[in-house]
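Researcher: Next sequence.
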Amino acid sequence: TGGVATILFRPHRFLQNMAELNPLEWTMGFRNRASGKYLTQETFGFALNVSSTSLKKKQIFTLLPAEGGVYIKTHLGRFLYGLADGSWKGDAEAPNADAVWTIEPQPDGTWALKTRHGYYANVKGETLSAFTKELPKDQTGEWVVHLAMHPQINLFNVMRKRYVHLEGSELQASEDVPWGADALLTFVFFEEHPSGRYGLMACTGQYLSASGKLVDGVSRDTQFLLGFHDDCISLRDEQGNYLSCVGANGTLKAAKTKITKDELFQISDSEPQFVIVDSKGKQVSIRSGVEVKADQPDVTDRERFQLEVDPSGSGKIALKANNGQYFTLGADGSVSATAKAKGAGEYFGVEWLGNRVKFVGANGKHVTVRSNGGLVANGNGSDPTSAFTLTLINRPEIVLRGQFGFVGLKGASGRVEVNRSHPDAFLLTCVDGAYNLSSQGKYWTVDRDGVAAISATPVNFFFEFVERSKFLIKHADSGKYLEGEQAGGFRATGAGSNINTLWEY
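Model: Next structure:
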């Protein structure tokens, strides 16, 4: 991504054989290199300005592929476009010829945005202009790319066709499926860098350095320039070397000066994974084969399952085992991990009962446990063996985002707010199906002013996974759901699922 090589986005070019990978749309903010302020679309009149110091809802744009360039969609569903008179606006209801933009990455990692008339989008004071065919020398036409996705991700290497995970003291692209906390990465944006840099944090809280070592602190060696290549990314260090997969184990380190498929990665959402325990304390498992049984005393990858919420909005879930197969029902209702893909028969209804859950098979029957441990959908919900305990295992620390921003702490007060431009990661512990969230030894609690991380003792919350990448948080004592407010308030006032009670994790 040097010079003026332009970016054309052709989504899913590398995805023909990777149907299971769910790449993210490129959503991002544009921070002006000269002013440090973000491009913003106001709700009133679809007006554009460059006045915000942080990335929130009004500053988020989505890139969509266009013939010869990209479309840039605003948070209000409108499109940016540049006119021949040198103006650029954001009120187009649908893409048109003037809405096609060319992206020219600059050597420092910033982008120049060029209209189809050949003019560069820039800002002078409060005035947006696109009436110069030379990129301004004062950096007013250069834009820092700040990705707006949730930062907890999985990372897939295109050449190795493997996921990156923590192995010993290294990050290696060596896992067929991203299973467990070791495959969870946090994609960190270093906003203090004038042209924006990114880093990879392992589940231990350590940063990947260019040498491949995991280190505790941030330095130039942990900051990488982000490059875009269709639906893939590259990461380049300060010396011009690209992050690559090296050796038989695919160890991540900055080792190559040119980009091949070994230096290309795809980002995907990190799906939630659980251990499931039956009413007698046995782990649900596929260790004995493909039959799903509650018969194990300990946990390996064969006792960890991925929960995938039906994207159609039914609230039903599918469970995927580490053999890559989904739970499905036999003719007699017995449960096995043998389905290669999800259909109606692989989705289960879920009854969220505080710190317990019940599953309902596609046959309308509740899942129970036979005397030999086998799971079977043959009950009416009254059998004690129909109650299971779920424990989320791949979020040792959790980052939450609502419709008004990230969830984070307000200074030293311990108050938890929901309109932050940068997230705080909270330590997550699970006890008997209930969750405790904490920061620096202080637990979340609920008082009349909302949520605060000020309690010396754990306070229980229940999670309900009702949408893809989003859940509800119920305060155990009050039975109310945590609800966000535009001004930042975070209160236990919700009665059910709505846009203000859903939290992206």
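Model: The chain has no helices and 49 strands. Confidence is low (pLDDT under 50) at residues 1-5, 8-23.
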